[in-house]
Amino acid sequence: MNNEKIIIANWKMKLSLAETLALAENIKTKFQGFSGATVGVCPNYISILEVKEILKGTDIKLGAQDVFWEGAGAYTGEISADMLVEAGCEYVIIGHSERRKFLMVNYEMIHRETKAVLNNGNLVPIVCIGENWDERKTDRRDFVLFDQLQQALSGLDLVGNQQVVIAYEPIWAIGSGTAIEPSEAEYAHKIIKLTLNDMFGMKIVNNNFKIIYGGSISSKNVKGFVGLENLDGMLVGGASLEADEFYKVAKALVK
Known about the structure:
Helix content is 41%, strand content 16%. By secondary structure, the chain is α/β, with parallel strands linked by helices. The chain has one domain (5-254): TIM Barrel, CATH 3.20.20.
C-alpha cells in the first residue's frame, strides 16, 4: 500500500437528498486539482447513485456508511457489498460507534461484514474501533482496542494488495466538538499497529493496512495530528458537512 494519506467524509444522516447533492457539487469544485491524499465521501444510501454522477471524472472516491454480510436474500432494509460496488462505491464504513450504540451492532456482525467485503474484493472496508468513556477512565483502552481488533479481524485472509482501513474513533470524543489530545491518539494508534503486527505480521500490515483517526476533527485542531506516527488519515464527520471546512482539513493533512 502506498504512503498516501486517506481522508473520508461521513455525512451520516445529517443531510436531505437536495443538501447532499449540493454538498457533493461544492466538494467537487473545491477539490479540483487537489493531490497528496485519497479523498472519499460516504453519503446516505438514497443519494449514492446521484452523488456518483456528480463525482464522475474526479478523483474523489464514493463510499457507503454500512453493509450487510450476506450477498442476497430475504434481509429487508439491508444492502450487500455487491450492490454497493454496482452503485459505484469503493469504500464502506463498518461498525461505526453510532451503529454499535443505537442499533446493537456487535463485533461478530462486524467480523462477518468485513469478511463479506474482503470476499467481494472490490471494496475497501473502514473498520471502526474505539473505547467509551468508562473504558478510558478505568485504563481499559488497550485491552478494548486489542479485543475489538481480534473480534473484527481474526481468521480473515488478505489477498494480494487488498486494503483494510482501521478507524480509531474514541466514542467519548465523537460529536463532542473536542478531539482527543494528539499524543493520546498517537498512543492508541501504536497499540493498534502492534496488535495488527501480532495478528498479521509486519509485512502485511505495512502493505495492506491504514490506521486513521475519527472524532471531532476540524480545521482548528487537525494540525496537531499532522505528522503523528502511525496516522494514515482521517474519518471526518461534522467538519465534512461544509466544503470549505472539509477542504481545510484535507489540505492540512497533506502539508
